[in-house]
Amino acid sequence: MKKAVILCVDDERAILDSIRDQLIDHFADEYNIEMAEGGEEALEICEELLEDNYEIPIVISDYIMPDLKGDELLKRIHVISPPTVKVMLTGQADIEAVGNAINYAKLYRYIAKPWDVEDLVLTVSEGIKSYFQDKQLKEKTQELERKVKTFRKFLPGQFLNLLNLKEYDEINLAQCTQKTITILFADIRSFTTLSEKMTPQENFNFINSYLNCMGPVIRKHSGFVDKYIGDAIMALFENANDAVNTAIEMLFRLSEYNQNQKYPDIAPITIGIGINTGPLMMGTVGENDRMQTTVIGDVVNLAARVETLTKTYQAPILITEYTREQLKNPKQYAIRKIDTVVVKGKTESATIFEVLDSIPPLLYEKKVKIASLFENALVSYYHQKLEKAEILFQECLAQCPEDKASRIYLERIYSQ
Hints:
Layout: E1 4-9, H1 13-27, E2 31-36, H2 39-51, E3 58-61, H3 70-80, E4 85-89, H4 95-105, E5 107-111, H5 117-154, H6 157-162, E6 176-188, H7 191-195, H8 200-220, E7 224-229, E8 232-237, H9 240-260, E9 271-287, E10 290-296, H10 298-313, E11 317-320, H11 321-326, E12 335-341, E13 350-355, H12 361-369, H13 371-382, H14 386-399, H15 404-415
Parallel strand pairs: 1-2, 1-3, 3-4, 4-5, 9-11
Antiparallel strand pairs: 6-8, 6-9, 7-8, 9-10, 11-13, 12-13
Helix pairs in contact: 2-3, 3-4, 8-9, 13-14, 14-15
């Protein structure tokens, strides 16, 4: 292991020799003692030592030197080696020079000439001690920061904020609070069939590549992932607009992902996204030695059910009436009512809407064009004017054959 270096700088050789002898008597067993007869030489020695991975815990420099004054030297050493302790040794330094060294080089101490040997030795000893204490503290701080950074990958800081907690060590079992939150569920279509074409390792890599694509989009819009459920994502948002904007961008990013994905034998994937807004309880569940954060409430269940309905209606994004009501300006999106349904596991009905903003341009134009026609067809259907509704839905399909919702309503009419 390389010995750390004590560097002494003075333009008078006799003084350098005196300092060296005194320091060798007390520090030679643990440190190398280096000498420089001027500021420029000292800088060269510092740079060479640092390049060779030597530590320089302390530099002792004279103030009056012909090429570079002590305060300027210490300032420049501070730039290349901030942790190094700096000591100025002189009988001629003025207040301005000392102040300059303190402000720009973090001067550790100023010792007047002629110096007392015991004072010099004590200063160097305490300075080195300070250097290594600071180094140890920095290493522990970096280690703690690494651990916190790792921990945040499992528990987002936003969850703590919503629980009104400032530190991770404040988390206790059964802590909870009620919040109005927007829940987003996103799921890959037919992933079981897709996964059968891949090895377990390829499955693992594929899922992570997909999630790495979608996670940044969620964070970009101030959301955070509550949990991953296989290939599904459950994300939380305090703002309904953020959730809808996330869903739209996720679909655009998915298009890019499909173009660049590394599995040429795998068909492009599609996803469905369901969004719901409402009050829920969020907090910690489990037992004292193993707990996790979670959210609980009907709003979560409904969001999950709405996501499954995206398969039925072949609509990439569906939102509930509760989310639509929370949008600051619903008209900024292309939204159409799809249905009023009683989802599985619920007794009360919920109205769901399709967000069209993420679908391909040609299909978008068709669906926007038939929007009023589809709305009139819905009104007729719900008022039991089935013949009129049939005609209107048929016209919707004539203009937009891809509209699965119109086809579903016609099937319902034909079955009655």
